[in-house]
Amino acid sequence: MDHIKSTSARILLLQIRHRALDEEITQLAANPYQNQLLLQRLKKEKLRIKDDIELLKDDLIPDLDA
């Protein structure tokens, strides 16, 4: 049961970070003269976090024996 709570808490923290990155990316993208390398790095981090969230969500679903 603690595993589920800690996984859920980690998902929540990752979702918060994902939203924050989304806002930061939107602000940087609004000005085309901003640091494009930073923008690319933030986008990659956002995608990595999204993948991590999906893996953790999958971990919460119990395996069914077919």
Task: Write structural notes for this entry.
InterPro entries: DUF465, DUF465_sf. It comes from Zhongshania antarctica. Pfam families: DUF465. This is DUF465 domain-containing protein. There is one protein chain. The chain has one domain. 82% of the residues lie in helices and 0% in strands. The protein has two helices and no strands.
Total domain count = 1
* SSE order, one letter for each helix or strand: HH
State the end-to-end distance.
24 Å
Mean pLDDT: 89
Protein name: DUF465 domain-containing protein
InterPro entries: DUF465, DUF465_sf
Which descriptors apply to this entry?
about 70 residues
Topology diagram in text:
Layout: H1 2-30, H2 36-60
Provide a concise account of the structure shown.
The chain is an all-alpha fold.
